[in-house]
Design goal:
Elements: E1 3-10, E2 13-22, H1 27-37, E3 40-44, E4 48-51, H2 53-64, E5 68-70, H3 74-84
Helix pairs in contact: 2-3
């Protein structure tokens, strides 16, 4: 499996579970899902197995825009934090 998105709606909240290997080339699809979500958006990252730099920057921007990153694996969280701190 390369990449899949599962959507769950609860009242005014929509959760997107991102599964597999997420790469920059998949971000258009993720962005379209988020834009069509309405209400508050949660990205559940528990089942991500691989990301690239473009994805990390996207997740950082998404979190900065108020999107909740749920179940963020430690390796992704550390990378997001490094990018937020200027790539140090």
């Amino acid at each position: 499996m390369t990449f899949r998105i599962d959507e769950t709606r609860e009242r005014r909240r929509v959760s997107f579970r991102l599964i597999g290997r997420l790469r920059g080339e998949n971000l258009r699809e993720v962005g379209q899902q988020i834009a069509g979500g309405g209400g508050s958006v949660v990205l559940d990252l528990d089942d991500l197995t691989l990301v690239d730099l473009e994805v990390v920057r996207f997740l950082n921007d998404a979190e900065g825009a108020g999107i909740e990153l749920r179940n963020c694996p430690p390796f992704i969280r550390a990378w997001i934090d490094r990018e937020r701190d200027g790539g140090r």
